[in-house]
Amino acid sequence: MKPLNEVIAACPPSGIRRFFDIAAEMDDVISLGVGEPDFVTPWRIREAGIYALEHGYTTYTSNAGLPRLRELICADLEKRYDARYSPATECLITTGVSEGLDLALRVLLNPGDEVIIPEPCYVAYEPCVAFAGGVPVRVPTSWEDDFAIRADVVAAAITPRTKAILIGSPANPTGAVQPREALEALVRLAQEHDLYLISDEIYDRLTYTGAHTCLGALPGARERTVLLGGFSKAQAMTGWRVGWICAPEAVAELCVRVHQYTMLCAPHISQLAAVEALSAAEDDVTEMVADYDRRRRVFVKGLREIGLECPEPGGAFYAFPSIRSSGLDSETFAERLLKEHSVAVVPGSVFGASGEGHIRCSYATALPLLEEALDRMGRFLRSL
What we know:
The protein is an alpha/beta fold. It has 13 helices and 12 strands. The chain has helices spanning 6-9, 15-24, 43-54, 67-81, 96-108, 125-131, 151-156, 180-193, 249-262, 268-280, 282-305, 330-341, 367-383, and strands spanning 30-31, 91-94, 114-119, 135-140, 162-168, 196-200, 225-230, 243-246, 318-319, 343-344, 346-347, 359-362. The protein has a 7-stranded mixed sheet with strand order 2-8-7-6-5-3-4, with helices on both faces. Strands 9-12-11 form a 3-stranded antiparallel sheet. A two-stranded parallel sheet has the order 1-10. Helix 8 links the parallel strand 5 (162-168) and strand 6. The model has no long low-confidence stretch (mean pLDDT 95).
């Protein structure tokens, strides 16, 4: 048989899913592994989906998505961040943010173009760059600096082949929220070297220790920024698969072109549910975000009390404590914690070299389970 695609064949399976699959076969496991809200989608949103199904909204929509949903997304961005996009020409609805990232990279990259990715970073970033024909170039951040992206470190990685910088803020896995000044420095760097900026802001509403900075709203950023967002996290709509891209018209137009030949459109029912989410579910979002914040404070305090140093996560729903005091590497720590005390976490090494010495813990878990997980982790540390 002729060989299959070499790039895809060389891509390892997700390190996150590996631990999740092991945990699924065990009893009494507390999983802090997968980054998914433990809330059910708020009832008013589910009811809108039910209504849409009962009334026969089971057809395709336009490739770019329902005009009403695009209007609401653009209005929300303008209201919250003063980021201004045309719903008709600069916004499209995608099947989750994952598809949005794939579309953006396919449109921006030619074969061999380099994309700089500060890490630790979400596990999909590097494979998606490679699948689009690009070359991922990782640059480090450190927990001593709260995982802030340093423009001088990024600048040192720029070559004549560099095409874009890909960031996530608030970040998975660290929970880090990039300071406005760090993002402004990246914009200046992008202007100087004529680079695109791809900003994954799926966790924008889950920001606890300050205001979220929308990259597309910064002076000089809009013309070179592809903004990614969606409904999976703050609205607890992971299974509905609704995301969006806002970008300059030339970029958005080509994203729609790829989208129309591959996915065609996001599910009609899901788009109508997302309309309801933006129109009438703000109180539900506020309540869920407040609950995440309570869990965040309890969990981070508990990690520190059992002897794990933990940077303050300013956003998302992840803690990224250091486990260096244990004397174990992150892979060994995670494997032993799972097998010996039935707590599933993700080794920091799967998010890049800068993640080694850390583990990712999702606190999108009920508070009693978080407290039990802390107790088990404390017993594990005392046994070492």
